[in-house]
Amino acid sequence: MGSGLTACFARRGSRVATGILVGVVVYAAVLVPITVATGPSDVSAAESLGFALALGVPLGLAVIVGSLIGAAVGADRRTPLARRRSP
Questions:
Q1: Which of 38, 40, 47, 87 sees the fewest Cβ atoms within 10 Å?
Q2: CB proximity list for 50: less than 8 A, separation 6 or greater
Q3: Residue 67 scores a pLDDT above 80
């Protein structure tokens, strides 16, 4: 269901925004609970949650940068060869 919604949003809207939104949702729905559940026994759940959220900032920036790079590469590849070459 998630991949179907992602494809639908990517076809109708911005691919960059869709990539960023999907990255955030997957991080919140999958990686945060896994990080909290698999934390060491001597670390409280609140500390594990804080660690997961603090880890989300650099990962979120990586998602944004990766989406922008992918969009730039994709836009360059969609440009016809005749338009790419300058006389």
A1: 87
A2: none
A3: no
